[in-house]
C-alpha cells in the first residue's frame, strides 16, 4: 500500500509542478513582451521580471531533476 500512495503523491506533485511551471512561464513571457515594447520601465518592474525569470528556471531545473515528462 505504501508504494501506491507514494506514486500517487509523486504524480500529484509532478502535475502541480508542471502547472506552476506553465503559469510562471506565461507570466515571465508577458513581462518580457512588455519590456521589449516599452521605452521606459520602472525599476521595480525590471526586478519583478528578473525574479520571474529566476523562478521559472528554478522550476525548470527541478522538473528536469525529477525527470518529469509532459503527457
Keywords:
2 helices; 71 residues; mainly alpha; elongated
If you had to describe this structure to a student in words, what would you say it looks like?
It contains two helices and no strands. With 71 residues, it is mostly helical. It has one domain (2-65). It has helices at 2-37, 43-65. 83% of the residues lie in helices and 0% in strands. The protein is elongated and about 60 Å long. The mean pLDDT is 90. Helix 1 packs antiparallel against helix 2. InterPro entries: DUF2508. Pfam families: DUF2508 (PF10704).
Draw up the topology in text:
Blueprint: H1 2-37, H2 43-65
Helix pairs in contact: 1-2
Précis, in short:
This protein is mainly α. It has helices at 2-37, 43-65. The model has no long low-confidence stretch (mean pLDDT 90).
User: How many β strands by DSSP?
Assistant: 0
Largest beta-sheet details: none
Q: Which term fits the overall shape?
A: elongated
- Give the structural class: mainly alpha
Number of helices in the DSSP assignment: 2
Query: What fraction strand?
Result: under 5%
Radius of gyration equals 16 Å
Task: Work out the helicity level.
Answer: over 70%
**Tally of separate domains:** 1
Distance between the termini: 25 Å
Overall mean pLDDT: 90
- Uncertain residue segments: none
Order of helices and strands: HH
